[in-house]
């Protein structure tokens, strides 16, 4: 038996000691990003999705993690996360896809209602960039 999962590519964007997160319809914080289209690479996907969801222009850095997230029983998605760097600092603009957008200090990430895989990715990217992690 083989399983098929949708693929969602997410990006970690840090400014100083903060990460940008989006609040979704499940009342969870999440990284920006979305579903991989068949004709694009994961790197192209995360750049496109961040532009669509936040209006931010990013370059893709390191691949951080890949894990299967069970949203609820029977609904699983493969999450792939990348560290991203802004090409130019812009105001993050909320799209219709989410309820809220916010920049969180890194030391608040551990306490957020957010999947652990996202928290690990934020920590990994912060440490790779030499930012203090107190999570």
Written overview of the protein:
This protein is α+β, with helices and mostly antiparallel strands and 135 residues long. The protein has a single domain (7-128), classed as Alpha-Beta Complex (Nucleoside Triphosphate Pyrophosphohydrolase). Helices cover 19% and strands 39% of the residues. The chain contains two helices and seven strands. Strands 1, 2, 3, 4, 5, 6 and 7 form a seven-stranded mixed sheet that branches. A hairpin with a 5-residue loop joins strand 2 and strand 3. The longest helix is centred in the middle third of the chain and has 13 residues, at 42-54. 31% of the residues are buried. The model has no long low-confidence stretch (mean pLDDT 93).
DSSP helix count?
2
On the 0-100 scale, what is the average pLDDT?
A: 93
CATH fold type: Nucleoside Triphosphate Pyrophosphohydrolase
What is the count of β-strands? 7
CATH class: Alpha Beta
Largest sheet: 7 strands, mixed
| SSE pattern | EEEEHEEEH
Helix content: 10-25%
CATH superfamily: Nucleoside Triphosphate Pyrophosphohydrolase
Determine Rg (CA atoms, Å).
Answer: 14 Å
CATH architecture: Alpha-Beta Complex
Uncertain regions spanning at least 5 consecutive residues: none
Q: Kindly, what is the distance between the CA atoms of the first and last residues, rounded to a whole number of angstroms?
A: 39 Å
How large is the share of residues in beta strands? 35-45%
Summing up helix and strand content along with how strands pair, one would put the structural category as: alpha+beta
Domain count: the total is 1
Global shape: globular
């Amino acid at each position: 038996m083989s399983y098929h999962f949708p693929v969602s590519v997410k990006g970690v964007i840090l400014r100083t000691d903060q990460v940008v997160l989006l609040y979704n319809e499940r009342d969870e914080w999440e990284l920006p990003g979305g579903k991989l289209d068949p004709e694009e690479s994961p790197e192209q996907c995360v750049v496109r999705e961040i532009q669509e969801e936040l209006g931010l222009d990013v370059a893709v850095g390191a691949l951080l993690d890949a894990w299967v997230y069970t949203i609820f029983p029977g609904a699983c998605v493969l999450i792939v996360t990348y560290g991203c760097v802004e090409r130019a600092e812009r105001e993050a603009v909320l799209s219709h896809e989410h309820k809220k957008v916010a920049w969180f200090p890194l030391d608040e990430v551990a306490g957020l209602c957010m999947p652990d895989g996202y928290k690990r990715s934020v920590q990994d990217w912060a440490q790779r960039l030499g930012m203090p992690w107190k999570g």
